[in-house]
Amino acid sequence: MSIRYASPSRKDVQTPSSKRPSWLSYSLDITSSEFDILCLSTCLKVLLFPAYRSTDFEVHRNWLAITHSLPLSQWYYDTTSEWTLDYPPFFVYFEKVLSIPAYFIDPRIVDLSNLNYDAWSVIVYQRTTVIITELVLATALWRFIRGAIDPSTQRIISASLFLHPGFLIVDHIHFQYNGFMFGILLWSVLMAREGNKLASGFLFAVLLNFKHIYMYLAPAYFVYLLRSFCMSPQGAILPAKFLSLANTVILVFVVSLGPFVLMGQLPQLLSRLFPFTRGLNHAYWAPNAWALVTAADRVLLRYVKRSGANVALNMSGVASTSRGLVGDTVFAVLPNIKPLHTFVITIAFQLVFLVKLWRRPTYKSFVTALTLCGYTSFMFGWHVHEKAILLVLVPLSLLAAESHAHFRTFLLASVAGVFSLFPLLFTPAETFVKVIYSSMWALFVMMPLNRRLYEFPPSLPFVLIDGLEKLYLAGFPLLQLFVTVFPILAGSSSTPTTTCTPSGDFACPEPDPAASTSNSAAMEFLPLMLTSVYCAVGLVWAFIRLGVIYLRQK
Amino acid sequence: MEEFLTQFPPNGTIRKKPKRLRTTSTQSDAGAGAGSAQDGPSLNTPVLRHRFSTQSMNSYADSETSEIHAPIPRRHHIQTTETRHWLRSSSHSPGPSSSRDLSPLSTPNHRSLSPLRHESFSAHQQAFPASSSSTSFPSPLPHLHHHTRHDSTSSHNQLRHHLSFSALVELEKEKEKERVEEMSGMGRRWLKWMHRNGMKEWVLGAVIGGSMWVKWCVSLGSYSGQGTPPMFGDYEAQRHWMELTIHLPISEWYKYDLQYWGLDYPPLTAYVSWLCGIIGNVMDSSWFALDASRGIETPESKLYMRSTVLALDTLVYVPAVYLFTRIWLGYRSKRTQNLAMMTMLLQPSLILIDFGHFQYNGVMLGLTLLAFTCFTRGRDLLGCIAFVLSLGFKQMSLYYAPAIGSYLIGKCLYLGVRDGTRHFIRLGVTTLLAFLLLFLPFLPPLSPVSFPTCILDPITRMFPFNRGLFEDKVANFWCASDVVLKWRKWVGKGGLVKLSGGLTVVGFLPGVVGLVRSGWMTRVRSGEGLPNTPESKHEGDGDEGEEDEHHHDEPNHTHDDNTRHDVESPEEGDGSIPITSLLPHALLTSSLSFFLFSFQVHEKTILVPMLAVMIVMAGASVDSAAFEWAVLVNNVGVFSMWPLLKKDGLALQYIVVTLLWNKVIGYRPFHTDSISLVRILAIAVYAGMAILHILELMISPPPRYPDLFPVLNVLLSTPVFVLAWLWSIKCGIEAFWALGGLGSSSTSSSSSTLFPTSTKLGGGVTGRRERKLSMLSTISEKTVDGHGESRREFRKSLGVGSGSGSGVGVSSGLALNGLGSGHGRWRAGS
What we know:
The structure holds two protein chains of two kinds. By secondary structure, chain A is mainly alpha-helical. Chain A is built from 23 helices and no strands. Chain A has helices at about 25-30, 30-45, 55-70, 90-105, 120-135, 135-145, 150-160, 165-175, 180-195, 195-210, 220-230, 240-260, 265-275, 290-305, 315-325, 340-360, 365-380, 390-400, 405-420, 430-455, 460-490, 515, 520-550. Chain B is mainly α. Chain B folds into four domains: about 1-190, no CATH class; about 235-305; about 305-515 and about 580-730, no CATH class; about 745-830, no CATH class. Chain B is built from 37 helices and no strands. Chains A and B meet through helix 2, helix 7 and helix 20 of A and helix 1, helix 7, helix 8, helix 11 and helix 29 of B. Chain A: This is Alpha-1,3-glucosyltransferase.
């Protein structure tokens, strides 16, 4: 891959015959390798148009219909479809914008009562919008290269993010707009890197109004902007800067929420955004600390039942284990977890990192703290969804080339995190797609980075850790083999292993109770549980690693 | 590329200059493909620059002596038509990476920063005193590195104003390298990146895995006849064959309910269907229940069917391509081999038909390719078996039969009377046995039906002369001319069969005659040893008349040597007799002539010539005529299947896969310095294609002509195929000529103009010598001290004739500017 130096300042060297061939790359200063990656990714993503799509596809189509056919005042009240609006206003405005061309392409797309419409036109349209809006991500990543300290490494990282299997699985197959929104997040981080902190804060406020899940990251932003933008290095508060930032953020929220506040719909809006009616774990346990705790509870229950030890069992917990798939997680042996507990633990961990950030409000420190904030929320949050792992993996990627320790953390978290996304696509046809793609991505990203950053473990404990980590990574192919083969061996032929499609921020509908109490349901749950627990081990370890690295950093 | 970039941040060119200069000599030889050697394992590469400060001292010292230049690679001057006005430009513009505003230099806290960089950089700072100029910085910078950045960029500007001549030369070299890299396409850039990042050994796996991934993604789409009862399409046909083979006795296979997709492919297809059916039946018996499963379209059965295609493709086509690239391109660099592999594995038409439309062409093509590879290695018997299997899988590979048959006859002639006869008998027996084995279950002891009918059933099914001249719209001569001349009205069916047969024979005759005749002309005469030894050729070359006597003398010797060679050297010489170089074009001629002129051709059959195109194209450099033609035919081939793909609902895949392939191979028809006839033709054809697609999108055809667009498609595609056919004949003739096939007296003048390279190389070599040269080529490859690319180009140009003539002119490094125009003319001619 080459570089194409096509900045305007070079024009005079270029004779007509050596004119840069592609007007696009010529005018945009895109090197041919970057252009290659753009083309390649677009081609691959377009090829995935006919692939499996989750109910999120219908969710977003329904939102197109809602925003197109209803007035603003009814957006958050409509219940024609079960997939009601539960994203913040900016995203809804965004859907409104998308619904306009949709109407011209096929009016049936935006027909509110046309539920579960899945004609080729709507598939192509919605999938195309994902690809096009992802250009925000592409642009942000491209700008990351341009100002980078080490452009060659940054280019690998940027490419790795743009071609991230997480985005491929969640956006281009499962269907969501994460690429677009992470594009805004990265843009905001980029602004922080380039010293334009006001813009950074502005973009983050915008992002929050696109999808409120980014609140997980808000503490790091708050501390960083407060310390490094609103205060002088000596600690004196700079009121002018503070006011400008506050005004910017307030302005964004006014634009977003204002109309709904005026209509007095704020409570309804908030009740849609924050439905506190879910269990500790999602249907498929997100691979976090609670997955390990839940698994430990299941194991203990087995042990207690078998040994007949005299332990007080929580009977609803026993029932919960046999239900397998869905519903509130109630522990049988261990004490139950309440939302408050998770909240306190999350805050406590975040505080540790935020204090560090307060003391050292540099860009690198900020990115690490940002990652750790997201990571803490993912680890200990209430009802975390497995897709939230992207909140960790994306900012963590920016740190991948900091040192070998960082790289190792990135490697473990990425492999475990991407693998934990696999159950999102449970159809056999997509198994090949996700496995091959993710392995190739890992190869192309990890090998060069490893080569650049490799360090021999300095002492015996590190050698041991290194060995264990390698062993852990080597377990993934085996796990995948097990997950693939198990349903066949269990005799359930080739029917999908899950009846429930985990989707968006929605709980799965309660499955048929007869099926879920049967043994086969438990057997179907086994691969999922194993995946979750195995990935959780790696992610918890990576969390500890990153935390220690950050806190030990001078 | 990443590595490359590190070294050329804004002030990179200058800073790096010492190293660049030192490595120039090796660089210039390694040429476009080699890229910067910075990361390679060679001695003077600064791999360790990050770690050891002592190294920096060495480099510093080097930089002092760096004004010693390696010769500027001339081929760059030939390749590029850029003017050199920059030499005179007073205010020089920024270095190549002015767009980058931060260099590794500006990262004092970064671990990759080495003292070396500082030192060599500061050395230059001293060398070029300060001055200033302004540069635009497209992107703002991290505030953290503000001061450093300022430092480095300002000094960068200073440097720029005081570029020495050598620095300018360096700059220009960089530019040329960029240009070459740009020209090389995505595939080659990726290969280079892989090499540079130490992932050489992963390339093969990645190529296979990536191509499988693409194929599988295409498989996610719809297939032919999806949701169109009662007959469905090719998918249902293949599935139905699996169904009937596992439930019926063999004798019933070719008779069962012929109206509903009766089996009409040769036995190997039936056997493979049986195998797939058996395995699928174990998984889920409802997929292949007799009669009950007709039109089954469950996702699981689709998944299974799709995976059988992928499995068979991976088991047959992929290894065949692998062997082909490793053996046929044995003398080329690994990168070229891998690039050829990517080209063949991502070939859009095959992917679209096999994985989209649904067929198993990969098996047939893979077997043919295997046969070809065996022939080029002299493993004729194996090749025969592979080709019989290919024929036994799909009768379409009969399109290759004239070329392959005449190649084998030519080889028998080449071996001389005694060996030739022996060889002929062995070939004949092997072929017969292979056919016998293939049809064994249909023959009397195993079959309840008596002899002639038991074999006639399958055969009449396979060759449906009772069908029409063509079905649907196919881009061949008959369908295209049918617009004007209503053949079916004028000539009866019997007459049409004869007419098409006759035309087909005329069509492939040039290839056949070339092979047989050159086999005869180059036959082993003097028995002085190896057919590959140039000395023996020299002496045997004396007079045509003497040859007969000579080769009677020591035929055994020859034969032994030949076989010995087979065993000993795994290289070029073994089994590769002179006429092998004629085979690719003969295959192309023959298959295209069948496609264009024979009876009952389907549009999908273009895949058959396409394989020959791939063989011709393999290893051709991006600016060679062979490449141009091959890509054009390929793209037009895909385009000619557009009506079919549109019907199958594969429009999206059609666009994506085609564009991806063109991007990977680095085809850029609209960006070129040299305009050749093919280029003009290609641009015209692409414009036509674009217009047709847009028209089709915008207006529906008038009710009077519902087939307007397919017919226009045919009218656009057919001329290209006809021209390609003529081109392949021409190439065949040239290659034949190169072997000295066209008599002796007239060649001297024409050949010297035809082969500028050989003239260049051999000085006053004339007519007769041309042919010696072609024999010599294998030897000279070993002796010419160049890198793989040029050697191979050299050989190919001699062997294949015009194919990559321009490539030779470029890479041999001997061509002068004067000749540059010569080869331009030559390319235009071809």
